[in-house]
Amino acid sequence: MGVLDRIQSLQSRLLTYQWWEIAVEFAIIWLVVWLVVRFVQGTRAAGALKGLLVILIILTVMSRLFGGDGSFQRLGLLYDKFLALVAIALVVIFQPELRRALVRLGETGFLRSTPKDIRIIVEEVSDAVEYLGRAKFGALIVIERQTKLSGLVEGGTKMGAELSSRLLQAIFFPGASLHDLACIVRGRVIDSAGVQLPLADPQDMPDPRLGSRHRAAVGLSQECDALVVVVSEETGNIRIAERGKLTKPLTIEQFNEILTQRLTSVIDRRRTGSAMPPPPVPDVPTAAERRELAMAEGPSNDSIMGAHPGDSIAGETLAGASLAGDTSMNDATNAGSSMDLGISSSDSSAAGVTAGDNERKA
Fold this sequence. Notes:
The chain is an alpha+beta fold.
């Protein structure tokens, strides 16, 4: 049977299939190919995958057109074994990419932030990053989104402290014991500091002059959906790493815009009921609000401004109300005393008039 006969036989066989069945099969194949391309896009696996697909297509065409009738039996045998070899090779060669794909498929909503939480996170981190960049203090801040980071990072000191600009500045101050490694931010809590992140390969970096902080930022962002903020110790430049990509140096306005946009997108696509939320954090003023309060109220309120964020101020409010009530009562008492004095004076005057009349009569 010649090549033309094989093509006609294959065509006649295709005509016997239902059109909707062929459409469903092609749709499933297209979906699988699209998912694979999406996961490996921008990685080193993309080029190798294209090469494997080209080889697979060539072998399939040769096997269908030239195989059979006892010809090219050895090529047919190799083709039969090729798919199994390709499956094993994919697992071995693309092991990092497959792990990242599984992590992305298993992403769940560990971060359940509200718009108010996002505003506080952006303001506190932005205030700290602006100071660190201006002072050229190196920093590496990881903002957890949907993927849990416990299996991707190593070491670190557990903190569980409330997120604040001052604390971030203190962590990355030169000479501090935790300033060399990364800090994990989970919601409105600084979960841990001094954490070691996986490093990206040098060929994955956009600029070979970038140091280990930037390699760590890109390396972790390749493994999960976390946002990694990195401040250069040499230049003070601020960058954000996401999905293995590193932004160009950002101004503080650009940083605020990108951070707000990325964190807001998590709320739009988060899934409920998949994990327990982080521990609640008491509502406290942000760094900008604290500055405004300090300017508006002056130094007389230092005792209130210095109170612990978790302490209730209801007692102070009640005490103020009680003080106001006492003041009102004192004012009323003083007013009453004045009235009494006025009445007494009137009585004295009346008595004086009566005495004068009696003298004239006498």
